[in-house]
Design a protein that fits this description.
With 144 residues, the protein is an alpha+beta fold. 23% of the residues lie in helices and 13% in strands.
């Protein structure tokens, strides 16, 4: 958060958002605690952050984005959560790896090039009973 604070001092109008377990669990508290944060994403970030670009551009209201926490004046608004079962991982594009310098990603043990590809997320067991457990897996025909 130090980096976010420094950025806000230099560019006060910049919009800063966070994703991860912190806003997913603590919701409103993450914006209460850190005034430099403008937006926070609950649960799966891919679908929310794609709509957040429209929010920041002024094309849509932040109130219309499920899974988003945002400021409205002095209030912190926690929107309705996403319906995770409606998010199809096969709708997500593959990373544009051709834009990366792949020579920079080497295995430390042998120096060979490598990359990671996650085709699923979630826990197959009900380990964290306090949290909603949801498993997403890409269709194997869409893995390349």
């Amino acid at each position: 958060m130090n980096c976010a604070s420094a950025l806000k001092k230099i560019l006060p109008s910049v919009k800063i958002g966070i994703v991860g377990i912190f806003p997913t669990i603590y919701e409103k508290e993450c914006l209460n605690k850190f005034s430099q944060i403008d937006y926070a994403v609950m649960d799966e970030p891919e679908w929310v952050t794609s709509r957040l670009t429209d929010v920041v551009s002024g094309n849509i209201s932040p109130d219309s984005v499920k899974g988003l926490i945002h400021r409205k004046g002095n209030d912190i608004i926690v929107n309705e959560r996403q319906k995770l079962a409606e998010n199809n991982p096969d709708d997500l594009p593959f990373p544009a790896r051709d834009l990366l310098n792949n020579d920079a990603y080497l295995l430390p043990v042998n120096g060979k090039k490598f990359t990671l590809l996650s085709i699923g997320r979630g826990c197959p067991q009900n380990v964290f009973t306090a949290l909603q457990i949801f498993i997403m897996v890409k269709n194997s025909e869409n893995v390349r």
